[in-house]
Amino acid sequence: MDAWTPRPNRGEHTTQIEMVRSKPGPARGGIVTTDDIVGAYTHFWKGRTTICTFPECDACDHHRTPRWYGYLAIIAEATKVPAIIELTPTCIPPIEEYLAEYGTLRGATVTLQRANKKINSRVLCTLRPSGYDKGVLPQPVNVRAHLAKIWELTAVQDVIPLDHGHHPITNGRIRNVAPPRPSA
Ligand SMILES: [Zn+2]
Question: Are 153 and 134 in contact (CB under 8 A)?
C-alpha cells in the first residue's frame, strides 16, 4: 500500500469543534441546529470518557455508575461558529416542554447556567425561540461523529467511520479502540 495519503481519513478533516459545558459564572449557550438530543450513558474510566456498554461493560463490572449526558449541535449566537453543547438530566424537563410546544429544538436558543458557584451545582437550562427561521440556520454538525472522535470510538451503525473501512468491530458492539492509521 502506498504510504502517501493525499487526503486524511474520513472524519479527520472535520475541524475540532468546541464542547460547551456549563460552569459557574455567566450562562453559556447558542442556537440549536439539531432537531433532538444525542444522548448516552458514559463513564469516566481509565482516564477518559467511554460509552457504557452494559451489560458487558468493564466500568460497570468495577461498580462505576454510568452518568447520562445529552448533546446538541449549536451555533454561537454572535459568531455563528458551530459547537456542541453538553446537557445533564436536569435539562430534560424544559427541553420536553419546548419540544411539546414547537416540535423541534432546531431554532431554539439554549442557555445553561449553574445554580450557584459550586462546580457541580445543578444545571439550569432554558430554551426560547431564537427568532431565526429554521430554514436559514446552517445544517447541524454530526454530533455522533464528533463524539465518536472525541471518545475514540470506532464502531457501528450511524457513527461515521474514521478509517478506510476495515473496522476492527463487526458484531455491532461499541468499544473504545484507537482509530487505525492510514499506513497501517
Ligand atoms: Zn457501564
Answer: no
Residue carrying C-alpha cell 436558543: 109
Q: Give the C-alpha separation, 157 to 174, whole Å.
A: 9
Between the CA of 14 and the centroid of ligand 1 the distance, in Å, is 29
Average pLDDT estimate for 141-162: 67
Ligand 1 center from residue 58 Cα (angstroms): 7
Number of domains in the chain: 1
The Cα–Cα gap between 55 and 66 comes to 12
Query: pTM of the full predicted structure?
Result: 0.74
178 versus 107: the higher-pLDDT residue is 107
153 CA from centroid of ligand 1 (Å): 15
Place of cell 487505525: 180
Assigned domain for 1 exists: no
> Is residue 141 situated within a structural domain?
yes
Confidence of residue 164 (pLDDT cuts 50, 70, 90): very low
Distance 164 CA to ligand 1 centre (A): 29
